[in-house]
Each structure stands twice: as C-alpha cells, then as structure tokens.
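Folding follows sequence. Below is one example:
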Amino acid sequence: MDDAIEAESEQQQQQQLLTKSYGHQRSNESPQVLSGLNRPIKATPLGEQSRAVRRQALMVILANIGVLSSGMSLAIPTVTLRQLQSEDESVHLSEAQASWFAAINTLSCPLGGLLSGVLLDRIGRKRTLYVLNVLGIIAWILLATASATSSVSFYHQLLLSRFIIGIVMGLASAPAGVYAAEISLPKLRGILILGTSISVALGITVLYSIGYFIRDDFRLIALICCGYQITALICVLPLQESHSWLLSKKRVEDAKKSLNFFRGLDKSPHITHPEVLEEFNVLQKSLHLRQGEKKPSFLSCVRLPEVYKPLIILMGLFAFQQLSGIFVVVVYAVQILSAADNSIDPFMCAVIIGIARVLTTCPMGYVLEKWGRRRAGIVSTLGMSFSMLLLAGCSWIKVLQSIPYLSVVALVSFIVLSTLGLYTLPFFMISELFPQKVRGPASGLTVAVGMFFAFLCIKLYPEMAALIGMDSTFVFFSIMSFLATLFIYWMLPETRRRTLLEIEEQFRSGKRQTTPTEVELQNVLAH
C-alpha cells in the first residue's frame, strides 16, 4: 500500500514541478496566451516507473547469468583443442575425436530445447533455471575430472561432458527470454528479451578471455566454468516466479504477489492499485480463453500454407546460417587465426572477435526495427561473402599478404556482419513467422534442423580444410553467404511494423496486406 501511495506522489511531484517552472516563466516574461494547459499529464504506467524497471531488470539479469554457459560451451573447443590434441600430453585426442568433441553438443542441443518446453510448463521458469545450472555444474565437473591415464575413458568422459552441456544449451534457449517477456510491459520487453542473446555473446567472450590467460590447462578452465555455474545457481534463489505461470497453475495469491512485486509494489496477496488490477484481470481472461481452446495436431497443420511456408523459409535460413561458417568460426577461431596469420596472437584476436560480437548484439533490436529484417539480412550476407572472399585472398594474392592484420580485419568483419543479420535473424523471426497454434512444435523442429546443420559443419570442417585447403573452405563459406543473400531477397518476407495476423494472412493468401486485414477484424469479433 505504501508503494502505491509512493507511485501516486511521484506523479503529483511531476505536476508540481511543471507548475513551478511555468509560474517562474510567467514572472520573468511578458504574458503569453498558451493553449493545452488544461490537458492532463500522461502518467507513466506503473510497470515502467523506475522502481518497477529496476526490479524487472535485476530479475532478468539474474536469470540470464546461467545463460552465459551456452556461450562458454560453444567457445571452449577453440581454447582447449590445442592441448587436447597435443602428443606431449599423457592422454590426447586424435583429429577425428577432436571434431566429435567440438560438435557433439549441437546434436544434444535440440533435446535440451524439447526438455525446456516440458519443464517450463510443468515446474515453472525458476525451477527450470535450477535444472539448467545443476546440469551445467555436472558437465563442467566431468570435463575437469576426465581420466589422465586411460585414453578411452578420457575420450568418453569428454564426450559425455559435451553431450550434457549441449542439453544445457538447449535448455538455456527459452527460460530467461520467456521469463523476461512475461514479467515486463511491451515497451521494455524487447530490451529485456535481448538479454539472452547478449548473454550468449558475453559467454563466448568470457571463455575466449580465460583462454587467453590459461592456454594449457583445460581442467582449470573447466573448474573456473564450474565455479561460475555454481554462482549462477545461487543467483536463481532470489528470483520471483512469473505471475503468468503461477496463474496458469491456479496459484492466484502467489500470482498477485508476483505481479505486485514486478509493478514496484509490496508483495501482497491483494491487489489494490487499479492499473495492476486491470492487468491481472486481462491476463486471467486470456488464460481462460487459451485453456478453453482445442489445439489441432501439428501434423494436421503442416499442410496449411501459413505453416509450411514459414517452416521452409526458416529451415532454409538456419541451413544457410550454418553453411556460411558462423558457428565454425566461433568453435575454431584460434585454429583459423593461427593458420591465417602468424603475426598476431590468435588468442588475443579471439578475444577481439568476442568483444565485437557483444558490441554488435547490444543494438540489434534497434537495427532490425530501423532497417527491417530483409535489408539487415541482405547487408549482412553480402558483407559476410566479401569478408570470407577477402580472407581466402590473403592466402592467394601477394598484394593482400603485404597488408598487416588484413586477415584479422576480415574475420572480425565477418563476425560483426553475421551478428547484424544472418546469425540473429533466424532466432528473432521464429516468434514472428509461425502462427500461435503451432509456434511451439514448429520452433522446436526448426531449431533442431539448424543444430543438425551446425553439427555437420563443425564436425566436417577439419576434414574439409584438410581435403581442399582452408582458403578453398573460406571460398565455400563465401559462396554460401552469397546464396543466402539470394534466398533472403526472394523468399524472406518483411515483418517490420506488421501484426502477426497480417503476416499469417500473407502466407495463407500469398498477397501482402498493407492495411489491417479483414481476418484481423474477424478474429477480434470472434472473441
């Protein structure tokens, strides 16, 4: 109740401040005729006021701390493979075993995604984060304690560790984002949801940085990651469960406490503020409508154009994302840089790549809204194609070889440009292109296909580089990036500033709707 009074007094202070400044202006200037002073000041929604924003931001940050492990698991092969393959070690990996170590996590990642969907509904957002962090701790312990005497046990324990960390990657893909979307108001939602992407990029950078200082002790690196994961687990303790999930489980009093908390009020089981009460009632009605609907099976929906068209587009986009070498560069950054340019420390360059990815990820919400999805994708893929061609040219053309650090510039440019479009777009557009009735299974299937292509590319890259040469492999990535440009130009619809119903109707009818459609009005009237 005190917080409700505090929120109202904050609005009154704003009005008093405006009145004082206007009175001061009138005392120093000649009288003027002003219009519109009788209009009421538009009050800031309770959920967007400073106290509520601080609470929402803090909870989302705590939820995303564990998500950094996804980035760490992607990056750890690049900082450990040199030691793991060294014949000076008592136990070491062969070339084929090393490629399995680098790639197997992408095979188990879809399993984590499916498990995430089940756990989010059954045990909630907070407990799913507990599971994520506990599995992460187990995976890092397995890596740190791998056998130092038996090559077979050493290899199998490393694979088991990577398989579990792949499940953690899949688990981490949804909970923090879903949590952020549910606890925030629309104005803040986009910024808070972006926290997951930033966390993954930051995890990659952190692991690259650890690898820069610790180059020949993968066990110590694994123990540091384990310690971090334990810290992430502790950070989940103060999280307040999402009111949406609590209400879906008919825990009404707990849901009211949660909603009051996230709107900057006391955690009371009674809602007294009219704005919060209205939000709670709307959410309750929405859940009742959703629970009353009978959803058709996914297989019966696949034949519908509004389902199979976005399915084909997004599967194609994920395939080009992997075939253009984005994940390959993340996983094998140090190895690629060592072969491409001996004049710079590859570990330092990997850190630069990681920092560039983080800095590029932060403004992605603004970029996609300003440029649109198609323009961002086309600029990204064309730039990636040129960057990979330039990287290949550094091995062929003597003039390019004489330019210092050009290969490093080309690789960093590739990472920056991929983050601006092809790396981000497929994940971003999943929630836009699929209809609500199939969004869960369609998203899971699409990401599974994407991870399968990631496995193929990461597993086969060492063999491909050995067979046709690293420079020819870069040309292949360049060609795939250019084909991705054509794919985006011909296939990808623009979704900026369009409602989900307009997008769905375009796939259904084959025609773009430039104004609110009749189907949208029919849906409104139907409810």
Observations:
- The chain is about 75% helix and 0% strand.
- The first helix runs from residue 2 to 28.
